[in-house]
Every structure is written in structure tokens, then in C-alpha cells.
Amino acid sequence: MEIRTLKNTAPSQLVACFNEAFSDYFVPVSATEEAMQNRWRASRVDFNLSVGAFENDKLVAFIFTGVGELNGHKTAYNAGTGVIPAFRGRKLVSELYHFAIPLFKNAGITQCTLEVITQNEKAIKAYRNVGFEIGRTLHCYQGEIQPAISKIPFEIKRSKEIDFEELKPLQPFVFAWDFMNDGIKAANNYECWQLSDNNQLKAYLLLNPATGYIAQLGFDKTSPENYGLKLLQEVARMQRSFKINNVDAHSPETIKALSDAGLVHFISQYEMRKMLT
Asked: Which of 136, 189, 243, 252 has the fewest CB atoms found within 10 Å of its own CB?
């Protein structure tokens, strides 16, 4: 068994190992190379700091590492960890992190973070053994939204240009890694929908129109008008099926807007963190 970085590993080998590792996951996964390339871009994956375990030169376990800034710390984000079934039970996740952490420190990284499904007790135990601690809980939603019955009396703007400074006052919480502003910029496949009332921005969402994936939803929570719900219903004029992941459990207004729109909470994740200083 050899542990080394993934900088010289072919993408096809990475994707093959990923699919084998997640073949029996809580949420079935079967990714194409194109989809994984998009995910790695959004997660800002650095393969010089991503690591894998190899048996006879076959990749059998991996950690993809995204690198960026989070809460003032240079951060190593776990953009995916997997071990193929035949090699589980060997504490390879711990071995991979023991190899990777000195690399992280040499790169000036001061914290590690990840998300893990709350039901995945084995993974949570493995991360705790490495020194990760559970932080906030994040909810995931999916389903169909019924469109507004009639045209809503607000101005709706749809654009591929995203002005994050304009959106900042409406951002409801610190978004999870892939959906932070830097992740949206790196992915470069989202469009911005905005709802304005009397020329004032009251709600926005960032949508991948090809997949129905909502990366961010923000709206004015001080008004009795449920602007978030109304924007969701307006976007549903164009398509019906949507998914939004990693909504902070302590954002009741966002959760209510999603539930009122008809989206269903289907799974939750813990955000975990390990400090390196």
C-alpha cells in the first residue's frame, strides 16, 4: 500500500474510484468525468494537496482537497472522501489525513473542514478519530414547485452576470463551501434571478438552469411579504424540479420559504472542522 498525492493521477482513474467507493452510499452516486470536473472546479480542488491510497498502482481510497479562505483561515476543504468496499475497515481515512496534514501545514493551511451525512456514523467516527468536531447542521431539499398562479406584481430580473456585492445584504448565512461566492465564480454555471419591489432588491437566487440546482437563496426577512417564496414560484414558471443543499438549520425563514414552496427535506449533513494551529 502506498499513499501519495493525486497530482499525477488520471481523471478517469479518479472518477472510477469515486464511483466504486460510492456505489453503496446513502444517496446513490454515479458521476461522469464531466460532472466531476465541474465539482472539482467549484470546490477549488488542488490535486497537489489531494491524497490517495494505492494498491499495486490501483487507487483504492482518496481525499479530494479544495483550498480557499473561510472565516479568515486558509482552509483545506474535504471535497470528497471514499474507500472502495474491499478496502474498508483498514482505517485508510486516518492514514490519508496523517499523510495530508503535514502537506496542509506546509502550504499555510490553518483549518480543515468537511460535510458528512448525519446518518453516516462510520464516517463521523473516522473523522472524529482524526480530530474533527461537529459544528452546524445543514439541511438538503428537493422536489417540484408550483408556479405562481398569476404574474406577481414585482420586477423580476434574470441574468448570467452576478454582482455579489449587491447580493451580500440578503445572504442569509455563511454558505457551505461549494456555494460560497468563490465556489459560484469558479463553477461559472449559475444565473442570478432577482426580485425587486419599488426598485429595491428584495430576493435573489442563484440557479443552474441545466440541473435545477439552487446554490444560494436570499431575501428580505424583515418584511411580512414572503419574497423568497414568491421568487421561487416565479422561477417555477420556467422549470418545476429543484434541489438545494446545505441550508443552515438555524435559518428558519429560509426553511419556511422552501417548505411553503413545496420542497421536501430529504437528508441532513454535519459541517465538521479541525484546526491545525
From this structure: 252
Across the chain, the runs of DSSP E, i.e. the strands, are: 2-5, 51-55, 58-70, 73-83, 111-117, 133-144, 155-159, 191-197, 200-208, 213-219, 241-248, 264-275
pLDDT tens-digit readout, 131-168: 999 999 999 999 999 998 777 789 999 999 999 999 99
CATH topology of domain 141-269: Aminopeptidase (3.40.630)
Contact 19, 84 (CB under 8 A): no
Question: Domain-by-domain residue ranges, the chain?
Answer: 2-131, 141-269
Cβ(257)–Cβ(228) below 8 Å: yes
Q: How far apart are CA 2 and CA 12, in angstroms?
A: 19
Q: Output the CA–CA distances (angstroms, integers) from residue 42 to 68, 186, 187, 188, in the order listed.
A: 11, 5, 4, 8
Q: Based on DSSP, count helices (H) and strands (E) in the chain, helices before strands.
A: 8, 12
pLDDT digits 0-9 by tens, 45-72: 999 999 999 999 999 999 999 999 998 9
pTM to 2 decimal places: 0.91
